[in-house]
Specification:
CATH superfamily of one domain: Tetratricopeptide repeat domain
Oligomer: single chain
Organism: Acrocarpospora corrugata
Largest sheet: none
Helix content: over 70%
Order of helices and strands: HHHHHHHHHHHHHHHHHHHHHHHHHH
Structural class: mainly alpha
Low-confidence stretches: 1-12
Number of strands: 0
Shape: elongated
Protein name: Sel1 repeat family protein
Length: 465
C-alpha cells in the first residue's frame, strides 16, 4: 500500500515583508517623505538587523499612513513582548480592513490571553468569512463548546473541505454521536485519505462495529503506518485470533513500546505462548509496575515457575490481590500457607476479592465501546473507560444468548434474576445508547457505575460470575 505523505503543519507567523526593492538610503528618503510602503520596507530591514526599536518606529509610521502589513507586524511585535492592549489595537486596525490573518490572530489573543470568548468569536467569524481555514476550525470548536452543534458542523465542514483534516475527523465524531454512521464514515474516510491516522483508526473501529473485519484490518494497517499504537494493538489481536503468534507478538510489542499497559500485558501472554520467558517477564514486569493487577499476577506466577523466586512471587501476588485480583488472592493465600504464614493465608483464602469479569467481548462490541469513549470524551466531555463499557456490552450479550423464546430481554432478565425492573431497564437503555449512538446522550460516569453494579449483580444471580 502507498504510505501517506506527512500532513504539513502551519509554520508560526512571521512578520510580513515586501519583495526586495531600493537600498537603505532610498528607503529612508522615501519613508521620511511619507511613503508608507517605503516605511514598511525600512522597518523590515531594521528588524532583520535586530534593531527592534527602529523597526517599530518605521512600522508605526507606515501603519499610521495606512499600511496594513505594518499594522499586522506591530500586532505581532506587541503580542510577543506582552503588551497585549497595544497588540489588540494594531491587530484591530489591520483586521478592520478585512485582513483574515490579523482577524484570526486577534481572535486567538482575545480568547487565550483575555478570556473574551464573544469577542474572539466575532473576529473568528470575520476571518473565516475572509477565507481563513484556521479561523473556521477555531470557530467550529467554540460552537461545539457552546452546544451549537449545527453551526459547529457547518464551520468544521468549511475547514475540512479547505483541507483541515482535524476538522474532517471531528465531523466524523459529530456524525457518529448523532447516529449518522454514513456521515461519520464519509468524513473519516475523507481525512484518512489525506493522511490522518486517527481518522483511519476510528473508521477501522466503525467497520469492525459494522461486522466488516476485512475493511477494518486494512484501515488499521494504514493507521499503523503512522505509528498509531491503537492500530498496532488491533492488528496484534487479529493476528492472535489467527494463531499467528509471531506476528501478534510484533504488533503487541510495537504498541507496548508506546506505553500501552494493556498491550504490555498482551505481549507478555504471547511471549509465554512462544516460550520466551525472559521477554514475558519483561512485559509483565513493566505492566505490573504501572499498576496492572493481571500482569502483576502473571509476573508472580512466572517468577515462581521459571526462577523459583518465592519472595518475588509473593510480592506481586500481594500487589495484585490488594488491587482486587481474585486469583492472585488465592495464590497468595496458598503461598503464604506453605511458607509458614498461616494466619495471613487464612485471611486471603477465606475472604478473597470478588472475581472480575475476564471474558473477551465480541470485536464489534469492543469497537463500539472504544468509539463511545472517544466520542463522549471529546472537548473535555464525559470520562469513561473502554473496559467498563466493554463489560456492560459483553454482559448483556452473554446473558441474552440464553434467551430462546420471543420475549422482551428486560422482562426475561428481570424475572430470572428477581432484580428490580428499573435497574435492568437502565442497563438496557445504556447498552442501546452505546450500540446505537444518537438515541440518547452519552451516559455519565455515575450512570456507568450504577449500570456496572447491575451487570455484576445479574451475572452473580444467573451464575456467570
Amino acid at each position: 500500500m502507498t504510505i501517506w505523505p506527512e500532513v504539513a503543519t502551519a509554520p508560526p507567523p512571521i512578520p510580513r515583508q515586501p519583495s526586495a526593492g531600493e537600498g537603505e538610503a532610498d528607503l529612508l528618503g522615501a519613508a521620511q517623505a511619507g511613503d508608507a510602503l517605503a516605511a514598511h520596507r525600512l522597518g523590515r530591514l531594521y528588524a532583520q538587523r535586530g534593531d527592534r526599536a527602529a523597526a517599530r518606529h518605521w512600522w508605526e509610521r507606515a501603519a499610521g499612513a495606512g499600511n496594513v502589513d505594518s499594522a499586522f507586524n506591530l500586532g505581532m511585535w506587541h503580542e510577543k513582548h506582552g503588551t497585549l492592549d497595544e497588540a489588540i489595537s494594531w491587530y484591530e486596525l489591520a483586521a478592520g480592513t478585512g485582513d483574515a490573518e490579523a482577524a484570526a490572530n486577534l481572535a486567538t489573543l482575545l480568547l487565550e490571553q483575555k478570556g473574551d470568548a464573544p469577542g474572539a468569536r466575532q473576529w473568528y467569524e470575520t476571518a473565516a468569512a475572509a477565507g481563513s481555514r484556521q479561523a473556521a476550525r477555531r470557530l467550529a470548536l467554540l460552537c461545539e463548546d457552546a452546544g451549537e452543534l449545527g453551526k459547529a458542523r457547518d464551520w468544521h465542514r468549511r475547514a475540512g473541505l479547505d483541507g483541515d483534516l482535524a476538522s474532517a475527523h471531528d465531523l466524523g465524531f459529530l456524525g457518529y454521536a448523532a447516529g449518522e454512521e454514513g456521515e461519520a464514515r464519509h468524513w473519516w474516510e475523507f481525512a484518512a485519505r489525506g493522511g490522518h491516522a486517527k481518522a483511519a483508526y476510528h473508521l477501522g473501529l466503525l467497520m469492525h462495529a459494522l461486522r466488516d473485519p476485512e475493511s477494518a484490518e486494512v484501515l488499521y494497517r494504514l493507521a499503523a503506518q503512522h505509528e498509531h499504537a491503537g492500530a498496532a494493538s488491533q492488528l496484534g489481536a487479529i493476528a492472535l485470533a489467527r494463531r499467528d503468534l509471531r506476528t501478534a507478538r510484533a504488533w503487541f510489542e510495537r504498541a507496548a513500546r508506546a506505553g500501552r499497559v494493556e498491550d504490555q500485558r498482551m505481549a507478555g501472554f504471547v511471549c509465554v505462548e512462544l516460550e520466551d520467558s525472559a521477554a514475558a517477564s519483561h512485559w509483565f514486569g513493566r505492566a505490573a509496575a504501572s499498576g496492572d493487577s493481571e500482569s502483576a499476577y502473571n509476573f508472580g506466577l512466572l517468577l515462581i515457575a521459571e526462577h523459583a523466586d518465592l519472595n518475588g512471587g509473593e510480592h506481586w501476588f500481594r500487589q495484585a490481590a490488594a488491587a482486587g485480583h481474585y486469583r492472585a488472592a488465592l495464590e497468595l493465600g496458598t503461598l503464604l500457607s506453605v511458607t509458614g504464614k498461616a494466619a495471613e493465608a487464612e485471611q486471603w483464602l477465606s475472604a478473597p476479592p470478588a472475581p472480575c469479569w475476564d471474558r473477551s467481548a465480541e470485536p464489534e462490541l469492543a469497537a463500539r465501546a472504544e468509539l463511545a469513549v472517544a466520542a463522549s470524551g471529546r472537548r473535555g466531555g464525559t470520562t469513561l473507560t473502554v473496559a467498563d463499557l466493554t463489560e456492560i456490552l459483553g454482559t448483556w450479550d452473554v446473558l441474552t444468548r440464553r434467551l430462546r423464546e420471543p420475549l422482551d430481554p428486560v422482562t426475561w432478565l428481570t424475572e430470572k434474576s428477581c432484580l428490580h425492573a428499573s435497574a435492568v431497564e437502565h442497563l438496557s437503555s445504556v447498552r442501546a445508547t452505546l450500540i446505537r449512538p444518537g438515541t440518547a446522550p452519552w451516559p455519565t460516569p455515575t450512570e456507568i457505575e450504577r449500570v456496572l453494579a447491575t451487570a455484576r449483580d445479574l451475572r452473580k444471580r444467573l451464575g456467570l460470575s
